Amino acid sequence: MQKEKLYFSEHLRLLNEYANDAIFTSDSNRNILYANKKAAVIYGYERDELLSMKMDNLISPKSLELMHERLQELLDNKSILYESYHVRKNGEIFPVELSITYFSSEDNDYILSIHRDISERKEAEKNINHLTNLYATLSQINQTIVRENNKEELFKKISKIPVDFGKMIGCALYIKDEISDRLILKSCYGIENYFNYLLNQKDNNKSEDFVSKAFEEDKPRIINSLRNYNTNSQWIIRAAEAGINSCAAAAIHFYSKPVGALVLYSQDENYFNTPELKLLEEITTDISFALEVFDRNQKREQYEKEIEENEKRLARLFSNLPGIAYRCQVDRDWTMEFMSDATFNITGYTPDEFIENKIISYGDLILPEDRQFVWDEIQSAIKKNSSFTLVYRIKPREGSYRWVWERGVSIKDTAGNVVALEGFVSDITDTKEASEKLQKSEESFKYLFKHNPLSMWIYDINSWNFLEVNDAAISKYGYTREEFFLMTLVELRPEEEKENLIENLRKKRVRVTETGEWKHKLKNGEVIDVLIISHQIEFKNTDAVLVVAIDITDRKKTQTELLFAKEKAEAANKLKSEFLAQMSHEIRTPVNVILSFSNLIKDTIDSYLDQDMKEGFNAIEHASTRLIRTIDSILNMAQIQTGAFEINLEVISLYDDILLILHKEFLPFAQSKNLIFSIEVNCNSSLIEGDSYCISQLFANLVDNAIKYTDKGEVKINLHCSEENILVEVTDSGVGISEEFLPYIFHAFSQEETGYTRRFEGSGLGLALVKSYCDMNKAKIEVKSKKNIGTTFTVSFQKI
Q1: Is the Cβ–Cβ distance between 729 and 681 less than 8 Å?
Q2: How far apart are CA 246 and CA 239, in angstroms?
Q3: Predicted model pTM
Q4: H-helix or E-strand containing 313?
């Protein structure tokens, strides 16, 4: 037992002797009885010197009072831990962390104290606080730029932030005056007397010569000691009086051109080092960004005004049309998306009551016995990819049914799918009723025929000779009645349309009513557009056709103007889309700032981070990287949609230049999920012609999705060849895609799981971009998938 005690005592002695902290033992009067080697190193004394001293001799005078307070606490609690300031033999005062224990042995009281030199830790904390102030400054400026819409107010607030958050004593912002070609002090904050001096200078751009140099040379300028600045300028004297000891200036840009400068002032010499200079450059970059945003916003407002004016012009054109201009869905209700103001005049309902079938559908207005006819005719026109012309009856809100004439065309998307109908509906009730009354009474017919304000005639269905013509036709066309009787129907047509007319007439189609648009030639040579409504009748025991000709020349002109206005509005909207694509690119700056400063802080305090804080920094980095990836996807999609995306075709190796690199890049991601990630090559050559960026992004998206949606099993890339193509298969054993969702996977923003409960992150743009990249590189992509089993994407390229 005695031997074990001796061994333990020797072991304890060695631990104390070679510890990294100073260890002292003192008696109740604080006389030093023992000091280890590290104590002599830290305090600069020989060990023999320490043994002749009291503990009080090592304490800085400013910490003696604190020591006496803590000693009383030591007597009560037997053990204390606190920070204090001690003094070395050379007089240097330094911070220490004290762990003191009070104990008794053989009826004597002793004090064991462990002293840890925390100078480096305190310096690190000081640096962290300083960096925190710099970050807070930049963060506040970014927030101000986002929130402030007034340029002058923005300048004022930016000048205030470095003083309030960055511990500067002053900040000044200069902007170049285009008229005088001088830098003008636009806003300032702090050191009021000094700024008043600058503002009272007649030529204030020369008051601080280093500011002008920073602007003219487009390079940051730093004065870290005004005492040593080699100039006799009056501003140096004034700056010293204001307590300025160092300052720095950097240029502000507007679309890469210097337009101003920002100046920061500090009361400390040698204040502006790399972090401070980076802060200055970041602030000027953010101000430059803000100026460009103000400019783009102003242009955007102008674009919006132009779009609004075009929309008003379009609305005026619609309101002046005598009938209903519309856009509707191709369903049995003819669900309306747009109707012009004349809707009320014809139907008795407002356009709003029809939109999305709010009160009534347009299909409900069509008489039941005409509905199938309307549906069949339109479906036939869609199949033939032609316009359609219809005459049918509708039931308005008040009164009996009305006859309408409709002309329209189907609208298709880029994939060739019909998405809507656009057309025009005109009330022809009066014309139709006049035609029906002609059949009831010859006298009534003659009267109506003669006095009808619309051009009318009757021609022989076999010989095409005119049998009768009304006064309106004589007046409109310029021929006498006798001249009409010597003519055939063909002679009213321009030369280029006569052949088509003869072909149609020879078909001798028998219908109760036919309609169509044609061109007619007047006697004076003028060609007009006419709407023809023809009705087969018996006239004087002869098979004949009654024709009503409506001059629609003005209407056609209006429709042309309408189309022009629509195209102009679409062009303006395209400009807006291009603007939004540019704005998406600018979002990267603040995200990169957040990521950079987060990494800087993490690297600075890495040795003091616990696991929770490390996970927090990792979360910041992951979220920032995710946002940047989303922004890149949005930007690429915007460029593709606006036609701004350019490709560079070159000969590349799918395996060496693309797949092998991606395999190395994504292998850590797969390993982090315990997945097998392999690549298999069964092809002698993988050379293709394509854009390397597009193809790399194509497969990066496919591999990223495969790993992301696979929790166990494997992800495999298989490169193989057919006679004409090189094929790449990306296969996973992940969650799979439901059969119902497969038709939508290449649609932008489409995701099988949506909302806040979805399990996987992403913007829904990845596969839409993949499809676009394939199309641009003349590649084909196919997908096979089973839910909860896995998915295989196959991309095929032409061999070269």
Answers
A1: no
A2: 9
A3: 0.38
A4: helix 274-320
Sheet holding 79-87, edge to edge: 32-35, 22-27, 108-117, 93-105, 79-87
What is the reported pLDDT for 354? 93
Residue 15 pLDDT: 63
Q: Give Cα separations from 31 to 25, 75, 666 (angstroms).
A: 8, 17, 65
Angle at 514 between CA 512 and CA 517, to 5 degrees: 170
Return the residue matching tokens 């280029």.
496
**Using an 8 Å Cβ cutoff, are 263 and 287 in contact?**
no
Do the beta carbons of residue 455 and residue 489 sit within 8 Å?
A: no
CA-CA distance, 617 to 467, in Å (whole number)?
A: 93
Is the domain of 364 the same as that of 477? no
652/743 same-domain check? yes
Q: Going by DSSP bridges, is the β-strand pair 650-653/466-469 parallel, antiparallel, or unpaired?
A: unpaired
> What would the two tokens of residue 414 be?
């880029």
In the chain, which residues have pLDDT < 70?
Answer: 1-16, 18, 202-207, 231, 315, 318-319, 437-444, 508-512, 569-588, 615, 618-619, 621-623, 625-626, 629, 642, 644, 748-764
Q: Does residue 29 form part of some domain?
A: yes
The residue type of 649 is L
Q: Residues 556, 557, 558, 564: is their CA dihedral positive or negative?
A: positive
For residues 751 and 753, give the distance between their C-alpha atoms in angstroms, rounded to a whole number.
5
Cβ neighbour number for residue 235 with a 10 Å cutoff: 21
Which of 508, 404, 410, 421 minimizes the C-alpha distance to 462? Answer: 508
Q: Which two tokens stand for residue 490?
A: 């063909």
CB 148 within 8 A of CB 154: yes
Domain of residue 722 covers 646-798
What ranges make up the beta strands (E) of 384-487? 388-394, 402-412, 418-427, 455-460, 466-469
Per-residue pLDDT tens for 545-604? 999 988 888 888 888 888 887 777 666 656 655 665 565 556 667 777 777 777 778 778
| Residue 579 pLDDT | 61
Cα separation, 36 vs 45, in Å, equals 11
The 10 Å Cβ neighbour count of residue 160 is 17
By DSSP bridging, strand 455-460 and strand 418-427 are unpaired
Write the DSSP assignment of 331-342 as a string of letters. Answer: STT--EEEE-TT
Tell me how far apart the alpha carbons of residues 40 and 52 are, in angstroms, rounded to a whole number. Answer: 13
Please give the DSSP secondary-structure letter assigned to residue 67: H
Do 133 and 258 belong to one domain? yes
Cα(521)–Cα(88) distance, rounded to whole angstroms? 115
Q: Are residues 651 and 638 in the same domain?
A: no
**Element (DSSP H or E) covering residue 164:** helix 151-166
Check whether residue 100 and residue 134 sit in a common domain: no
d(CA 454, CA 473): 7
305: which 2 tokens? 């005004």
Please identify which residue in the block is written with the tokens 């023999």: 48
* Number of domains making up the chain: 6
Q: Is 674 helix (H, G, I), strand (E, B) or coil?
A: coil
Q: What is the pLDDT of residue 307?
A: 83
Question: DSSP class of residue 21?
Answer: S
pLDDT at 334: 95
| Residues in contact with 13: Cβ distance below 8 Å, sequence separation at least 6, in sequence order | none
Side chain identity at residue 506, one-letter code:
R
How many DSSP H helices and E strands does the chain contain?
25, 27
Q: Write the Ramachandran bin of 169: left for phi over 0, alpha for psi from -120 to 50, otherwise beta.
A: alpha
CATH number, domain at 396?
3.30.450.20
String of DSSP letters for 356-376: TTSS--HHHHB-HHHHHHHHH
Cα–Cα dist 453/264, whole Å: 84
Structure tokens given for 288: 């430059």
Count of C-beta atoms within a 10 Å radius of residue 435: 23
- Bridge partners (DSSP) of residue 247 are 223, 265
pLDDT of residue 682: 92
Q: Is residue 576 part of a domain?
A: no
